[in-house]
Amino acid sequence: MASEAVMVSATEAKGTAQFEPRIVAFCCNFCAYAAADLAGSMRLNYPPNARVIRLPCSGKVEILYLLRAIEDGADGVMVIGCLEGDCHFMNGNFRAKKRVAAAKKLLDKVGVESARLEMYNLSSAMAPKFADVIKEMTEKIRKLGPSPLRKGVAK
Amino acid sequence: MIVGERKPIEEILEMTKQYEKLYVAGCGSCVTVCLAGGEKEVGILSTALNIAAKKDGRELKIIEGTIERQCEKEWVREMKNQVKESDAVLSMACGIGVQVVAELYPEKPVFPALNTTLMGYPTQHAIWLENCRACGDCILHLTGGICPVSRCAKQLMNGPCGGSQNGKCEIDPEIECAWALIYDKLKATNRLDWMSEIQPPKRWDLAGSGGPRKTIKEEEVIA
């Protein structure tokens, strides 16, 4: 995660010393990824904390992806899929919803706050909403502080 | 197939917490198909254990591996290097696999990561129904291919009982009455007269009350 190191050290160098959450956002190609693209075209500002990973559908997300992100040092993980009822593959987002719920349970049991993992739904036209959910998650994780797996990272 | 489900993670953490090097061993047969102990589940469990260890600041090194079948020694021998390198084995096989691994590596602690739940088939993706109890004396030819030993709550041989209501079992309206299914099948195949034949007591001595049963195919045994 070289990019993380660069970003974190850049903010620390500025003397802000504020904890910058590392967030992994698994984005469906047909909604969130397109919304992120539109957000860029619309010049919308949102925190640079989320690293977007494009999936062909939110239903491609596996419990393993979510847990591995946490294991490898993510402070927060998002899954962003289409609005319920609007999945390009009929019900991929409902599958993602169930897997996110299962992964949240597992996280709680192994001692990581399940609030570090959230699922959101939006459409490809909802660029402002995309920016909002990234902001919302970033602020939420900022309040939670660094992942308990990242020892020695100050709040 | 044999169906299992992962034990609660707390239970697995408790039994393995004293070990620093764990071999999490999946099985590529039944438990892979029933989404309980294959390569993917090995990954999920290993990651969960790693997260717990990192969070608590515990040292943990996990070796992940999935072999074709843990219920046969030929395959289980293939994991000898991984077993040697680890302090304990966490087997994601059914109870049979766990025991074969434990027998083959007597010096190594072996723990079960699954509860073996039943023998059955998926009625739909990710839902398995028990439909065989390995009673040792199959009567499916008499019962229209529906097993009352596993599917009737009372294991009746001359059913249905008075609790059969609209095709459902009185113990749970979700459970189909095996004898109602048997009736329907026999009727559809013009064998309803079979229902009136009184079945004699079943040979329960074959069902496993006398210690472990053994099946021998004499002509194939290598001396």
Architecture overview:
The complex is a heterodimer of chains A (about 160) and B (about 220). Chain A is α/β, with parallel strands linked by helices and about 160 residues long. Chain A has one domain: Rossmann fold (3-Layer(aba) Sandwich), CATH 3.40.50. Chain A is built from 5 helices and 4 strands. In chain A, strands 2-1-3-4 form a 4-stranded parallel beta sheet, sandwiched between helices. In chain A, helix 2 (about 30-40) links the parallel strand 1 (about 25-30) and strand 2. Chain B is of the alpha/beta class. Chain B has 2 domains: about 1-120, Rossmann fold; about 130-205, no CATH class. Chain B contains 8 helices and 9 strands. Chain B has helices at about 10-15, 30-35, 40-55, 75, 80-85, 95-105, 150, 180-190, and strands at about 1-5, 20-25, 60-65, 90, 110, 115-125, 125-130, 170, 170-175. A 4-stranded parallel beta sheet of chain B has the order 3-2-4-5, sandwiched between helices. In chain B, strand 4 (about 90), helix 6 (about 95-105) and strand 5 (about 110) form a beta-alpha-beta unit. The longest helix of chain B is centred in the first third of the chain and has 18 residues, at about 40-55. The mean pLDDT of chain B is about 95. Classes of the chains: A alpha/beta (about 160), B alpha/beta (about 220). The interface between A and B is medium-sized, with 16 and 17 residues.
Summarize the SSE layout with pairings.
The complex is a heterodimer of chains A (155) and B (223).
Chain A: H1 2-13, E1 23-28, H2 32-41, E2 50-55, H3 63-71, E3 76-81, H4 92-109, E4 117-121, H5 127-144
Parallel strand pairs in A: 1-2, 1-3, 3-4
Chain B: E1 2-6, H1 9-16, E2 21-27, H2 30-33, H3 39-56, E3 61-67, H4 73-76, H5 80-85, E4 88-91, H6 95-104, E5 110-112, E6 114-124, E7 127-130, H7 148-151, E8 168-169, E9 172-176, H8 178-188
Parallel strand pairs in B: 2-3, 2-4, 4-5
Antiparallel strand pairs in B: 1-6, 6-7, 8-9
